[in-house]
UniProtKB/TrEMBL annotation, chains A, B:
An example molecular function term from Gene Ontology annotations: nucleotide binding
Name by which UniProt lists this protein: Phenylacetate-coenzyme A ligase
AMP-dependent synthetase/ligase domain segment(s): 63-275
Alphabetical UniProt keywords: Ligase, Nucleotide-binding
Subunit structure: Monomer.
Similarity-based family: Belongs to the phenylacetyl-CoA ligase family.
Amino acid sequence: MKNDLKLIQLERLYAILNRVYKEVPFYRSLFNRYNLDPEEFSDLTELKKYPFTTREDLQKNYPYQMFAVPLREVVRIQASSGTTGEPIVVGYTKNDLTLLAELNAKALQSMGITKDDVLQITFHHGLFASAFGIQSGAELIGASVIPINLEDPRKQLKIMQDYRTTTMVCTPSYAIWLSEVLLQTDINPHALMLKRFILCGEPFTEKQKEHLQSLFKVKVYDLYAVMEIFGPGVAFECREQKGLHFQEEHFYVEILHPETLEPVNPGELGEIVITTLTKEAFPLIRYRTGDLTIPLKETCPCGSPYLLTTHIVGRKDDLVMLRGIKFHPSQIELLLEAVTGEKLPFQILLYREEGIEKVLLLVALSENLFTDSFSAQENLKKNLEERLYLEFNLPIKVKFVEEGSFEKKNGKILRIIDKR
Amino acid sequence: MKNDLKLIQLERLYAILNRVYKEVPFYRSLFNRYNLDPEEFSDLTELKKYPFTTREDLQKNYPYQMFAVPLREVVRIQASSGTTGEPIVVGYTKNDLTLLAELNAKALQSMGITKDDVLQITFHHGLFASAFGIQSGAELIGASVIPINLEDPRKQLKIMQDYRTTTMVCTPSYAIWLSEVLLQTDINPHALMLKRFILCGEPFTEKQKEHLQSLFKVKVYDLYAVMEIFGPGVAFECREQKGLHFQEEHFYVEILHPETLEPVNPGELGEIVITTLTKEAFPLIRYRTGDLTIPLKETCPCGSPYLLTTHIVGRKDDLVMLRGIKFHPSQIELLLEAVTGEKLPFQILLYREEGIEKVLLLVALSENLFTDSFSAQENLKKNLEERLYLEFNLPIKVKFVEEGSFEKKNGKILRIIDKR
């Protein structure tokens, strides 16, 4: 089985390397620069000679230059939202969408989902792409799907009761919020029909998982999504709950040391690097996801020959993930500069209030801006908050403070204080 | 052609009446009460003996009692969001979803969309269902779809440029906002690849249509959606732009006088009443949509044998439609009572600021609430605004006023002041 997989991977790697060489100018010039001839590719170990693809490459080739098919064969385009001046775009052919549905169907089936299940899918619209992907998989199985886009956990709980939901699909932070609101109601969690949570979009801790499992008397499964690769379904947790299974017929996965970029041993932390084996519109070679995980030595009792790792344990960079929306401190920096015309010191405070994740942006005004009138400051604050909302689709409060009040480490202002 | 259509309708009406009689207890007892035996149905004119179905019927039979198939055959469930204590639900089988895609594909093709087109679909998440429906139709044609859920018109315009969008799908109010922002930029609208707007989710005026058409040098098409029936695609405007074509092989349409409920003549205003002919999961008999239109005497030069009407000219009731989200004043009333414990006089002010539709809720506090401290009032205001946001997914500002300041008519407080 494992050998069959390696054979499939080899054939598909050969095909995809040659296809991107032929169809994507970016890869052709990259491979030429490295003196690589994909025609000569004959062994899996040779892949390590090939250069990585990064998010920056996707940004530089925005919007359509990474596509390996003509635009008329592309039926869906997902644009990443919320990045300042650095958008990226992912395309799908009809076959890509079929594969997306199949990969998600397989993931959901491994979690025990059948056509008798009722899935309640609730994502912030920043995670639209994930909602589409999971929904297409569930519909392929024939399960009933309730796509619902509501913030209010009380309504979600009502829907969960009324519709006899068996499977709740959401971000980990939303699940925790739901659990906190549940305790304020007279709903008996054991009287719900709920069997499982599927968490997607953010890392979560073992403690959070256990809290949800014991409160709701359910199982909690992890579904790994990489927007640049495909959305959800790249890896998933099966009913054995031993960690993430990567769908290796379709993704060649390397777990590499974040600094040396050499393969790590089982038990060691590494960055997930993915080569797509079957994607038509938007194939990627050695894409650095930035997500960190730990490959496991054990195989899963489910019998899967797939690579097994722990959950995602973090991000290589300091990306902020909040309510399923991701942003970089550098985006805040750019926005502050765009609005005020100055590079201002700032700090991002993440905290939780009544179960909801919140962001406060502390900004130290320059002397120039501080000497303005109170109402001018109020206007600036309002203006900033509106721009932040438009940029990130998140309510971000702004507070003006003195520079001395910032939390520092080794004399440097900490960009992010995470008190969640 | 017209006769063929009538024959198809007759056969399908017979089948659907018998099916709901057999499968849906609500219809069985209703038909029995009216002494109707669907086995005897033999002529289209007999349908007028059948009772109407209303939104209230759907609410009373929430969540699953109107379904005509077992839940395990339902693959998608759309719940209406934003209604206080009166949710409704719509279900789809796999065949229903296929039909949804086909109806939308036909509508889009009639607007001239081919696989070379790039559709940018932008809806508030309250219109999720419409986004899904239009997307499935566009993918069936093989057009490229960019589903993007962003408020910021500047970003939408950037995407429109970068992705060479040919078709913008949005609500009329969003399109107007976009046009206003466009004029503040240095983008030359004629240099865009845009060919058409497809407007969905709200009525729009001829003036708005002309404004968009001349500014962008495009055509503007109307796509009619009824959430309870199917979502988008129930009726559409073809390239001739003569009005709405109803897809009568799948929907038996009556246009009835809003008071007498007798069929109106061409040129007269009437309410759209729909009987679904082919829906499996959630068939409806003589459903009163509450939408008003005017049937036209002319046939369309496109040769379609379908019923042709004007655009939707309004709603039978005083439903507020704002940014694609619908709500009733009665929902505001209930929410105010829930939060304050009192029935408070209020008025809903709809206005437009920088092209964006906004809502201000004016509330007259009772003596009891007025004598509280300033900070208590501030808290109440904040609390109300948060609850309103959770309820309607819309930012609604609250202002406390004296009762005397309300605009009245015949001594009665006007519930809605529409200054948009």
